[in-house]
User: What shape does this take?
Amino acid sequence: MLNIVLFGPPGAGKGTQSERLTEKFKLIHLSTGDVFRANLKNETALGELARTYMDKGQLVPDELTIEMLKAEVLKHSSPIGFIFDGFPRTNAQAIALDDLLASLNTEISIMLALEVEEEELKKRLLARAEQSGRADDADAAIIENRIAVYNNETAPVKTYYQGQNKFTSIQGIGNIDEITQRIFTALENIQA
Ligand code: AMP
Assistant: This one.
């Protein structure tokens, strides 16, 4: 299986690049943010719980997020592989993901970390708010908080994958096609 962690701060382009990877490799795209938003829309109990955190730009607690992610993974029988987008966001989530994949006799193949500087992220998120209608993209204070949460709680997950020699940095600035090409090149290197 090809299992990719597509990593990066909010606004780095994870969703856009996931679409391209899904198309090329026929992988299953699992975005924890998308699953939470679907739960919000359908007014489920999980959605109600997640809302309080999402509205402030905080992380949903690990226990809830990990249970939800496990259930999503286990929905698929004999997948070619997964793209994990927006997960793991803490070391506890990374450990839980390793355990889950080990129980399925597979593992993470690579972490692709999209690197984009903060001023660019803020610009992209405010521009995205106009199309996405996401409340957490439209408010400058919530954006600041999401970036701070990323720096403090999520960025350390890079070290976890560095320890496994799976970390690959991808320059996330530039034209979307160029960034996709950088990702494809990184994947060719691990598959070679
Ligand atoms: P995203 O669509 O990835 O930007 O996620 C939107 C929001 O969903 C985040 O700001 C968090 O509140 C929540 N969320 C998504 N993924 C996770 C995760 N792996 N762990 C905790 N909270 C998450």
